[in-house]
Design brief:
- Helix content is 39%, strand content 14%.
- The protein has 14 helices and 17 strands.
- It has helices spanning 18-32, 44-51, 55-68, 85-89, 120-133, 148-162, 177-190, 206-213, 257-270, 324-334, 343-354, 357-383, 407-416, 451-462, and strands at residues 71-74, 78-81, 106-107, 171-174, 195-199, 216-220, 222-223, 226-227, 238-243, 273-277, 301-306, 318-321, 388-390, 397-401, 419-420, 422-423, 439-442.
- The protein starts with 17 loop residues before the first helix and ends with a helix.
Length: 463
């Protein structure tokens, strides 16, 4: 049938009206939506052969359905289901889907890197070397633990760049932060954990992920020194705490050194875990990046990292660094049937790290993002003196606050200037007692040619 299966079912039995049965089957297929308007039908000769009927029977069926309006004859192109068939079928109109929110010209949402700066040529070379040199077994089913080559490269990179203490066996390759948190939450639930502390402002996907796993999130206030951990010992049944210690998202502060030590001491004393989301730890502009919290205690801290901010989120490349005792549980939870990062991407990332291309790219982007942040602060200081910019010199975003103006209003003003930004409320967890309001503005996403226009449009919105 020229590769088209019409699923017409029975079209009549010997001794019965085959033609009427075939017509009824066509009408039912069109009414049910199996044959949508515009579907090209097989030639009468092909359909007759497939159904074991005489060609004249199929020709007559096509002709009668055309006369009724179910089908349309296309001169020189065969027969297809009529655009009027839905009206004839009397099907209810499909529910109206709201149109998507118009895409604004200038994308200043937080968390997006400059995708136009992705190092295509070096990545292509890495992929080519990978496919050329990969062992045959790499083309088979994937180990949920991840390719050993990538785990080894990631462990060594994180040791020198982020101060981690880990071996390749402690690294589990995953498809990004969402999968990593899902895996951790599932393992915690199986261990009997029912409550996890999170920051009162955080990435808006974290709380739903914990709730979906059956974990109750408990909020921690955040001040100028990061998450306030003073109440940890007073929270009953607390099995872990989830933090962004190197650069709190979205408020942009670092966890102060005494608090870093205190949370590790708490985890040791209570036999619990600290989950460290190091989402943009490579990007610090006023000094060398602060080492990861995991370096203080590799047995009590689970480290979560990705290539989403350093390279591109579309690569779906991330990694967990977990204590020895949890490796088996995490890998088992991931499972052999779990969709995983393809071996080409894993080995290409290995090559990218080991060749030095990853370090070169991060250095280049660190310079570019530092310059953009400085330009953003200078423009706001000059043209919008009532706007307060908060957050340390790090990462890909800043928090902007204007006295007497809500974040929602600033988002509306920005939209009128074709600028996409996010309100702080998007990242506020239910039950948060903080009265802070404002907008979270990313400065990394625009291309080099689009950055100037995006900054000008943002300034107009803030005036």
């Amino acid at each position: 049938m020229s590769g088209l299966d019409l699923h017409l079912g029975s079209v009549g039995q010997p001794g019965r009206n085959v033609r009427a049965g075939l017509m009824a089957s066509f009408r039912e297929a069109i009414r049910s939506g199996r044959l949508a308007p515009g579907t090209r039908l097989p030639p009468s000769r092909v359909l007759a052969a497939d159904l074991g009927l005489g060609r004249s029977t199929v020709v007559r069926v096509y002709s009668e359905l055309i006369n009724e309006g179910w089908l349309t004859a296309l001169h020189g192109s065969g027969t297809e289901v009529s655009q009027r068939s839905e009206e004839l079928a009397g099907r209810r109109a499909r529910p109206r889907v709201p149109p998507p929110r118009p895409r604004l010209v200038h994308d200043l949402r937080p968390g997006w890197p400059d995708l136009s700066s992705f190092p295509r040529e070096e990545w292509i070379r890495a992929v080519k070397r990978t496919v050329t040199n990969a062992p045959f077994e790499a083309f088979g089913y994937l180990d949920p633990h991840g390719r050993s080559e990538l785990r080894d490269a990631v462990a060594r990179y994180l040791a020198r760049a982020r101060g981690l203490r880990a071996a390749a066996d402690n690294v589990v390759v995953c498809s990004g932060a969402a999968e990593a948190l899902r895996l951790i939450a599932a393992v915690l639930v199986k261990a009997g954990v029912t409550r996890v502390a999170i920051e009162e402002f955080c990435l808006h996907t974290q709380r739903p992920a914990l709730l979906k796993a059956g974990i109750e999130p408990v909020l921690l206030p955040v001040d100028g020194d990061g998450a306030d951990l003073s109440a940890l010992d007073e929270i009953p049944d607390l099995g872990a705490v989830l933090l962004t210690p190197s650069h709190q998202f979205p408020l942009g502060v670092a966890l102060q050194s005494d608090r870093r030590a205190a949370v590790v001491d708490w985890a040791r004393r209570r036999g619990t875990l600290v989950i460290e989301d190091d989402y943009d730890g490579e990007f610090r502009y006023d000094r060398s990046p602060v080492g990861a919290l995991q370096g203080l205690d590799h047995d009590r801290v689970v480290y979560l990292g990705t290539a989403s901010k350093s390279l591109a989120p579309g690569l779906r490349l991330g990694w967990l660094v977990v204590p020895d005792r949890l490796v088996g549980s995490i890998v088992a939870e991931k499972g052999w049937a779990e969709e995983s990062v393809g071996f080409v991407s894993q080995l290409a990332m290995t090559d990218f790290i080991e060749s030095g291309a990853y370090d070169r790219h991060i250095r280049a982007m660190r310079t570019q993002y530092r310059r953009r942040r400085e330009q953003l602060l200078e423009a706001i200081s000059r043209h919008c003196p009532t706007t307060r910019v908060t957050g340390m010199a790090a990462g890909l975003h800043v928090l902007l606050e204007q006295p007497g103006v809500s974040g929602a209003e600033l988002v509306r003003r920005a939209a009128r200037e074709q600028v996409a930004i996010e309100p702080l409320d998007l990242f506020r967890n239910p039950g948060c007692t903080s009265g802070r309001d404002g907008v979270v503005v990313g400065f990394a996403a625009p291309s080099a040619s689009g950055w100037s226009g995006a900054l000008d449009a943002l300034v107009r919105a803030l005036r």
